[in-house]
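Entry 14. Two folds queued back to back today. First construct below, sequence then structure tokens.
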Amino acid sequence: MTRHMRGLLPRESENNGRHSTMDDLTNQEIVAVLDDAERLVPVARGDVYLPLLQGKVLANMFFENSTRTRMSFETAMKRLGGSVLNFTSIGTSVAKGETLYDTMQMIDGYADVAAIRHPRQGAAQYSADAVEIPILNAGDGAGNPPTQTMLDLFTIRQAHGTLEGLNVALSEI
């Protein structure tokens, strides 16, 4: 997550909501997000409708192909009562050479939050610096998307009941 999430999430973070990478989060913030995710499992399953984000708009800004990540953000937003604008660079002014800055400035006027997936590392932070709305890093180049890391940590915690005392190895395939 990047920028302030005021109005979207109930709590303030120590970093004022600027989270482009996992390094931007404290251990306490990670645990708090995982705790929130745990409480939202019934919503994620579709068992409970909780319109926390009713009236809010998410712009899914996907500059490279993705199925699971895009649909995950879209499903989460809709299950929390919000709406989604799906953006791809094909068939837009980006295809004609519009800059990332100009594209994000335009989106800033339409959405309350944006999830960005871009092939260039650092694009999420660049976007966050260009706009007032919060930016969610859905992957940028070789960077590690914090949303995927949080999902992995959530899955490990679900399987083991805790993250304390675990040794986790990460490798690139």
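Second construct, same run, same settings:
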Amino acid sequence: MTTPLKAAILRHWELDRSLFPALAEIHSLGIRGARGTVLDALLEAVATLRDFPSLYVTLVEFSILEERNADARLLWRTIERRIATDPSWMSKTESSLLAWLIAPDQAPPLDELGKELLAGPAPLRRAFLPLILQELRASGHSATSHYLVVRWLAEYPSEPDAWWSGIAHALQTHDHALLARLLTAQSLPREPETTWQWTIALQLALRAPEPHCWTIVNQVIDHVRKGGFSARELHSFLEEALSEYDVLRHPRALLISLLLSGMLGEAPNRTRELLSLSTLESPVERGLAAALAVQWLEPTELSPALIAMLEELLEGIQAGQEFARIVQKLETGVRPLTLCEYALRVGNPVLTQRALAVLVDLQPALSEFLSLASRLDIAGSTEAAIEVLRVAARQCRQRHDRVGLVRALRALVQLDPRERAALEFVVSADTRSGRFAQAIDTLLATANRAAQTGDQSLQRELLERAATVAELADDRPRLALIAELLAESDAGSVDRHLAAATALLRAGQGERARAQLWAAIRIALEQRRLDEALVAAEQLAALDPNDEAAAAQLNDLRALRRRIGEQRSVMTSSETN
């Protein structure tokens, strides 16, 4: 784990542009984590750069990174002996810093070390002074920290580490005057360069006023998107930055936590806490809460407060308001069309009307309308899908797009077979253009939807209409299919099964025709309609003279008819006598 001290050492290596190429290469290897190679390079450098003090600083830093404290102390004793014989060999800043790194109890006081770092080389100051300032505040010496921060800002105003150290001091000591001064001095907060600075940036975002806070959050988001943190580092970063905040009492902390942890592609642990949000002061916070709810909660789970926030966000998008643009920039995964789809699935009438109004303004392509309606239907929001298709049809009509209008209305009637006028328009357009197969398929799909809704009367009406078109087109395969569907829809009708058998025979489907004839015989016998049973049996036997079962059935029915005839004759004779 990278401690603040180890992070400071690596920061020093990053900043130190040594005049000696060998040492610069060692620093570069260390930053990349090639520690074994660093050790080999250090040992080689010792042989050639024995009198170079920065090499010994690097050796001590490397020992601390590797947690080889005994080696660090041994090196320090060597350095002390060299300084005793030649005080000018190593700068006072370097020696004081090494003493603090190795034996803090024997080192100069922190305030003196801070002053020496202010006067020392920039790489050492920028790497270690932020750590010294933190130590001073942690040990109760906030006044000294303030003094050093102010001096640093005054003497080296161009150093970003000074600015971020000033922000850290102001946040931790609640120095609102210093915070206001630093934020006013910058048109935008400086881009962080270290993990520690990113942590301070996020803490600043939690306290800074709008729009500064969202500018900072957006910088953090960009850093995460660029791979600035691994998943483990991001979790640790969030935990440290938000540790002092109760997310239920500080909603912005909850929103930022969900926003950033959600970028890992994992469902954040605290998504359910969105449901507890009732009032948020900022439109951006309300919009962000709605966007995060869209990302992580089911539409049926939304609280009334979140429904209101989602409606406000949609209204903001429709009106082009600044807060809506900020939300969309922060949560790029939630596009306006995605928000509309989610809102339509909630099932709230007011929210539905708002989402439809946004769709009208967005004017998506017809293909997007059709895809949206399909997804809504699959999700069980069929009524919303129907409304979307009505909007699509109106859009096509306004654009005088007849082809698109037919497509939109075709999709509409397949979801709502009660749209008679739309169905007539589509079927007429298809038949006039000679697209009989498409007209039949549309009627079949509409009939299937009617069956799914339990409206069998409408289903049969639509199937009969499809049969009429199929007859007109002499489309025997489809006519046979329609006849079968009609027989299924009216299972007690002998005539339907006989008609289906005839249509199937015309289409060359002998086996399926036999099945329909057998069904007709069974139903006719159940209904005591012997004549219809005989007609079906005769057709069945005629299909295949070698079909013994059909022949036997026909003989049985004829025998039954003879017996019934004989019985009637006897009864007639008895009545005459």
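Quick look at the second one. DSSP finds 31 helices and no strands in the chain. Residues 548-576 form the longest helix (29 residues).
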